[in-house]
Design brief:
The structure is a homodimer. The first copy, chain A, is elongated, with a radius of gyration of 26 Å. By secondary structure, chain A is of the alpha/beta class. Chain A has 3 domains: 44 residues, 434 Repressor (Amino-terminal Domain); 97 residues, Rossmann fold, CATH 3.40.50.2300; 167 residues, Response regulator (Rossmann fold), CATH 3.40.50.2300. The first copy, chain A, starts with 5 loop residues before the first helix and ends with a strand. Helix content of chain A is 44%, strand content 15%. At the A-B interface, helix 4, helix 5, strand 2 and helix 6 of A face helix 4, helix 5, strand 2 and helix 6 of B. Strand 2 of chain A pairs antiparallel with strand 2 of chain B, so a sheet runs across the interface. The first copy, chain A, binds a DNA duplex through helix 2 and helix 4.
Chain lengths: 355, 355
DNA sequence: GAACACCATCGAAGCCCTTCGACACCGACG
DNA sequence: CGTCGGTGTCGAAGGGCTTCGATGGTGTTC
């Protein structure tokens, strides 16, 4: 099967190559009659425009790059939904996705953008001092980050509102009657990597607790049984009357529940557990966790839409509470009223509920 | 920063564009002197050849497609290492990777190949009657499958030798003294999808057991606690004296260990567990599982090497046993001698050991 | 019926690169 | 000194497509 060119289609349809091109590109000046004939010829000859030639002439490739630095610690379960979202939305726009996985340095991105292989780039896991952001800023490709770059970079982003999420988590638990609330945070490595989101959640939780006149105790948690037990025991030591925790650590949900069993803590009657994670992950453990859903697929889609948008504007996705079986009122309700009073004095807050 | 073309590089270096091109493409006829000067100009002007133009002229794009159908049931933890392998090897050859995720139908592949966006394709998760294999067979791009297509397709493949793995698993357990061995297989959906590998392992295990004069009992297992308990209870009902299982179900390793705890079975003293899975997954649970390592990253690399090879030849990767803490001799050694005798009568077999 | 406007289609230029054959130069050989 | 072979560089063609400005044909208006 020899490769068929636009010229062959044109002569088959009895028109000029330019007319075929106009049909392909949706130029409205072509009459319906001609358009149909050309379409028929395209189908008959099974023609596909040559991507290289098209890119050469038009300067567009309809390919976007997705840059995911892959570290050993990257959690596939967490990352993949973002990828799904990106790929799906890209496809909807007729774009293909080029996968870049170079950790850290921007050489790969540079190559792909400057050789005009892609029209745009979606960056994942941007760090505070990300080389890739700098590398891209000089280039003319569109770029969007999935995750908020810390510095005042001008690059548009989509991210989850981790700070609001932290505050809403506190409010939810306080509303249930909890006053002794702890935070089991991301592994310390995540904090060190300056990805930002771990801090933002921490801040939201701690600030809101302080506003409500409650104590804050948080602890990074490594994703191993030992790490989880350490964090848990540490928290109980600091807050012996602990009745609720916020967990921001997708890799340890399972382990945490096992650890609690091992320590003879019933969920939720001894300890309410509120997870900050994708809904899916919360559903896959037992008991099903109440969670603040991080809508990864939607965010992936959002990033692509931003790439497509005429005037891209960054935005944060609001947390949505998905009720599960891991939260409830604390067993001893001694100080409930007091806490609630404090809260009511404040402006009314609380997450949107999932429908 | 305006885009710099080959002509500008040429005039900067005081040579003709063709000379620059020859330097770029490693033509040996260019003198060292000239080559160096051109290289210097390229660096000075920060030049990158236009991928589209190059593709148009040369017919090559240095891009390979990676086609992973993504179903809801796709296990990211299992798939991603293959992707790593592919991406890494591609990069080593200076290729980029285009990610295709259309489940089932080959339209996406067809588009990408026929429009000459990619030079080759790596297909993952091929099914017996895979539309994509058919779609590709007419096209001129190179293609390789990661996983053995069942029918006598001429497409080269890399796959794990699941049958040999099944046999080696049996041999390993028998050598430890087990005679009552069961198989906890992939979820039934995997069998129905005709992916082949689930059957091949099943066959290896059952055939080898029969050869050794032992009974075979296997059971597909769904990746939920209930599914695991069902499978486990079913197996114990059929084989009350069960002392060892082979597990071929990456999604349920954790759940299985919990289920065993729930049933008061100690691993390995009550039940030896031998997993068929990637080494990583076996290491992440407690106790660490003895496993037949499926070297996903290497296989991903292998697929790309095949794409690159002058004369690609399909091959199967031999299973490697990675000892863990989940296997040991059975508690009651009543029938051990008998079983060993049967075995010794046969040709000596056994997996390669990991170093 | 002539002048005009408008619409659908066409021709040709050019995007940037690779590659083939031509060519200029040099040293060697008879 | 004329010829030959080899080496290193160049010129030009052309790959398939898009897009601008030109063109011809139709319908409308005075």
């Amino acid at each position: 099967m020899p490769d068929v060119t636009i010229a062959e289609v044109a002569s088959h349809a009895g028109v000029s190559p330019s007319t075929v091109s106009y049909v392909l590109n949706g130029n409205p000046k072509i009459s319906d009659h001609t358009r149909e004939r050309v379409r028929a010829s395209i189908k008959a000859l099974n023609y596909r425009p040559h991507a290289g030639a098209r890119a050469l002439r038009s300067g567009r490739t309809d390919v976007v790059a997705l840059a995911i630095p892959m570290y050993e610690w990257t959690n596939e379960r967490v990352v993949m939904p973002f990828v799904y979202g990106v790929v799906e939305a890209a496809r909807r726009h007729g774009w293909n996705v080029m996968l870049l996985t170079d950790a850290e340095h921007g050489a790969e991105i540079d190559q792909v953008v400057r050789s005009k292989m892609v029209d745009g780039v979606v960056l994942m896991e941007v760090r505070e001092d990300d080389e890739r952001v700098a590398a891209l800023s000089g280039l003319e490709a569109r770029a969007v980050t999935l995750g908020m770059p810390l510095q005042g970079s001008s690059m548009p982003y989509v991210d989850f509102d981790f700070e609001a999420c932290g505050r809403a988590s506190v409010d939810y638990l306080v509303e249930l009657g909890h006053t002794q609330i702890g935070l089991l945070a991301a592994p310390s490595g995540v904090f060190n990597r300056k990805l930002g989101y771990a801090q933002r959640l921490w801040q939201g939780v701690s600030e809101r607790l302080r506003e409500l006149g409650l104590d804050f105790h948080g602890c990074p948690m490594e994703p191993t049984m030992d790490g989880v037990l350490d964090a848990l025991d540490g928290l109980y030591k600091k807050v012996p009357g602990l009745t609720a925790v916020v967990v921001h650590n997708e890799g340890s949900l399972d382990t945490l529940l096992q650890a609690l069993k091992q320590r003879d803590k019933d969920v939720p009657s001894d300890l309410s557990v509120l997870a900050v994670c994708q809904r899916d992950l919360a559903l896959r453990v037992s008991p099903v966790l109440t969670c603040m859903d991080v809508p990864a697929v939607e965010m992936g889609r959002g990033a692509v839409e931003l790439l497509h948008a005429r005037e891209p504007t960054s935005y944060l996705v609001a947390p949505v509470l998905v009720p599960g079986a891991s939260t409830g009122p604390p067993r001893s309700r001694g100080r409930v009223r007091e806490a609630l009073t404090t809260r009511r004095a404040d402006k009314p807050v609380g997450p949107v509920r999932a429908t």
